[in-house]
Structure formats: structure tokens, C-alpha cells
Fold:
Amino acid sequence: MTNPEEIHKKARHILYLLVSEQSLRAGEGLDPQALQHDLDRHQFSAQDQQQALAYAREQGWLQTGPNGEVQLTEKGFALD
Structure:
């Protein structure tokens, strides 16, 4: 997946999963392996996962938490 629109769409889908399925709020995080399991279940390829997560971090929607978890930012939470 190299299409910028697809990357954006997949990154937004990740935010949806974090908020809707995992019930995360801004500042809360999810273990990377648990997120990968969810993304696998939603048929994200390894490349899709990598590109979408990188894009979401670049946009300031996600960050790495103090214990290595994928953490939802205020900006990311506001988008969902």
C-alpha cells in the first residue's frame, strides 16, 4: 500500500479500532502485540500496519507510551 489516500484511510481505521473496540481515551495505550492481533483480525497486511501506524504517528494521532504501548493522543482521539 503506497497510495497516500489508502494509508490515511487505514490510519483512521486504527483510530476507530482503538476508540470503539478497545475503548481507549486520549493518553491511554495498548500493547503493540494486542494491537497487531486486532489489525490482523481486520485483515491489515504487515505492510499496511507499518505504513498506517507510521502515518498516524507523523500526524500526531498516536505516540509511543512510556512502556512501549501504542498511545492515543488528544489529537487522535478528537478525530474519531
